[in-house]
Amino acid sequence: RAFPGFFVLRRQVDVFTVQNLTKSYGLNPVLKKISFSLNQGERAALVGPNGCGKSTLMDIIAGVQKADSGHVAFTPSYLRIGYLRQGISFAPGETIGAYLNRFASNLKECLERLENVCEALAASPDEVLLVNEYDRALKNLDRAQQMEGTRLDILSGFQMEDIPQDTLIESLSGGQKVRLALAGILLEGPHVLLLDEPTNHLDLASQEAFESALSTFEGTILAIAHDRYFIDRFAQFVWVFSDDGISVELMAETVHKIMSS
């Protein structure tokens, strides 16, 4: 894994480990025994030529595709993974609020459910099932209220808090759609973020808002990126893919010098 002349970072505790991943499409090998690991809170970038297997690797880590051989291990095994893929798509006619409700309880629905249970309980106060349902509805409402605060905090971090929740997503700019997609992912409380070219097609304002929100994330991040300025501000270190799928690990500042030369 070492690249002659460059310092290889050493870590002690791994959040997830990629071990000897191999993947081919027909007779075309895409990944050849790729191995690396990431620790809690570390931020790494994947760089390399188009078609060398970076997105395939991300799909395998996220569980979207299966490797031909090798494995991905998470420690602990229940880690939540947030995956921002290229080509973000939303349901036709979907609003900001409807999209975010996919990832968190709807406060209005929880309130309505609690009111309905209260009415039923008033009519049958000794019904055990209704008492239990009331407890569940109350807990769901409390969770939804907490998530509503989290939702507003996340949207504020992405500078989208002033956009009405009933706004159609199709009316948003490309940069706003990327920020909204990541906002939804963050609502799920991921421990690890996988980002595939997250700054593609972002204008300067969108990129600054995106990077600002990302800077507050305390988990582990692995991003495919070609934007050397994003890499310089975001990554601690970088895996460089060559055409034959072999990765080497470099300090991010070294990669920045290479890309600037």
From TrEMBL:
Coiled coil: none annotated. The keyword Electron transport does not apply. Keywords: ATP-binding, Nucleotide-binding. Pfam families: ABC_tran. GO terms for molecular function: ATP binding; ATP hydrolysis activity. InterPro entries: AAA+_ATPase, ABC_transporter-like_ATP-bd, ABC_transporter-like_CS, ABCF_ATPase, P-loop_NTPase. Signal peptide: none annotated. PROSITE patterns: ABC_TRANSPORTER_1, ABC_TRANSPORTER_2. Residues 16-261 form the ABC transporter domain. It comes from the Bacteria. Gene3D superfamilies: P-loop containing nucleotide triphosphate hydrolases (3.40.50.300). This is ATPase components of ABC transporters with duplicated ATPase domain. It comes from Anaerolinea thermophila.
